[in-house]
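Check these lines:
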Amino acid sequence: MKELFDEVGQKASKIVTKNYSTSFSIGISLLSQQIQKPIYSIYGFVRFADEIVDTFHDYNKADLFYRFKEDTYRAIEDKISLNPILNSFQWAVHKYNIDMDLIDTFLKSMEMDLSMNNYVEGEYEEYILGSAEVVGLMCLKVFVHGDEKKYQELKPYAMGLGSAFQKVNFLRDLKADFHALGRSYFPELDTIHDFDEKTKKEIIQDIERDFLKGYEGILKLPKNSRFGVYVAYIYYKNLLMKIKKTPAEKIADTRIRIPNQKKYRIFLSSYVRHKVNLI
């Protein structure tokens, strides 16, 4: 009854996604039925790794992370894990031929968060690559379902979109990263007081370039994934627009968010655009 055990793990990954991210869970629910499970499986895995390094302050985070990392590799090698999230992830890895170097790169970025506080230029790019761009590539492996030619064609676009999402998250969480974690991802910022209108404008222009690249890729995605990815794109674009309109000092002092009611309006308008073939 391994199939039943796998199904339990996939349901656990879906629960993790729904509890940790309303936006991503809605976006995933708009993908075709056949690819929802592996995307939930990927999200559950990356979410747990991120939680270890970001929130478990009362525990030995390094010990927890290295055990999780070891368990990840063992799950992939054995094709089973009694951790339902890792069992779900290893199933997706094998079914969609997710490259081990993507997983290695992701885990390396999570490991960086255990010891680094202020990211300089090279470290910033390395962190973005591992924490966001390769996650986009894991999802792309699912979207193209084994079509290596399509994967290589869409690879730079998926990386750009993942980068844009992560950088928006950095802006949204600027206060929490500095004050709760003592961490600065943007190389321009040694302290939170360095975040001014000029710096904000430069960061946003960089993100907008990533979004432009990512949107080109969305239009090239297979139909069964295009709408769900487009909805995530529209949500993050709206979040960036709100950040753009918010004074720098307020961004440094509060977490910018989009209320759930507005999120649903965004998703509804995206659905209308999709139905009239505007995407």
About this structure: Residues 2-275 form a domain with the Farnesyl Diphosphate Synthase fold (CATH 1.10.600.10). The chain has one domain: 2-275. The chain has a mean pLDDT of 91. The CA atoms of residues 211 and 246 lie 19 Å apart.
